Amino acid sequence: MHFFEDTTILSKTSGIWFKTPGKFIISPNPKTHFSSKRGNRSFTLRFATLNTAEYFRLRNLGAIAPGYVANLVVFDNFKDFNILKVFNNGKIVAENGELLELNPKPLEVSIRGSINIKWLYPEDFKIPVRGNKCRVIKITPGQIITEETIEVPKIEEG
Fold first, then answer.
1. Hey, which residues does 11 pair with through a beta bridge?
2. Does 7 fall in a domain?
3. Domain residue limits at 86
4. Contact status, residue 151 vs residue 143, Cβ threshold 8 Å
5. What angle do CA 83, 86, 89 make, to 5 degrees?
6. CA gyration radius, the chain
7. Cβ atoms within 10 Å of 7's Cβ, excluding its own
8. What pLDDT is attached to residue 102?
9. 98 in helix, strand or coil?
């Protein structure tokens, strides 16, 4: 993610230029073009919440609506965004700068069933490699963004 302050965003999508003004802009695209100009904070909040959730296809996130996960932050005003309360899954977890639950539960992620494909076996992961390096998709735990990296593969039976 790329964070830009005090900007108006101009992004080219499908050959069409559009403009979203705002004081704080979060963009997953580092190639987005920006020009400095103050704008409407409601556009900024939408860009940082619902638009981001829709961009990454995170269903039931990014808005306050029936059926959406209640993860939200309560501010005292829209000028300096002082945080009063933080809710996670509908429960208050922080208030006035203090964490309320000191023993957060570990993140449990169910991999099986998250993608609809056949059962995979170790031999399914064998790949032919030319040379001594290959491209790898690197994940960062807890993040949605991946990176490309070049690695030297482990060679077995080859």
1. 18
2. no
3. 70-101
4. no
5. 160
6. 21
7. 22
8. 66
9. strand
In this structure, is residue 80 part of a structural domain?
Answer: yes
Residue at 82 is within a domain: yes
The H or E element containing residue 43 is: helix 41-48
Q: How many domains does one find in the chain?
A: 1
Q: Which two tokens stand for residue 54?
A: 């829709």
Half-sphere exposure of 12 (CA within 13 A, CB side): 3
Which residues are within 8 A (CB) of 27 and not within 5 positions of it... i.e. 6 or more apart?
Answer: 1, 2, 4, 9, 11
Write out pLDDT tens, residues 59-103.
888 887 888 887 888 888 777 778 888 888 888 888 988 888 766
Contacts of 96 by beta carbon, 8 Å cutoff, 6+ apart: 84, 85
Q: Is residue 39 part of a domain?
A: no
Residues in the chain: 158
For the segment 7-55, what is each residue's pLDDT rounded down to a tens digit?
A: 334 443 333 333 344 334 444 444 444 433 445 566 667 766 787 788 8
- CA-CA-CA-CA torsion sign (143, 144, 148, 152): positive
The dihedral sign for the CA sequence 91, 95, 100, 104: positive
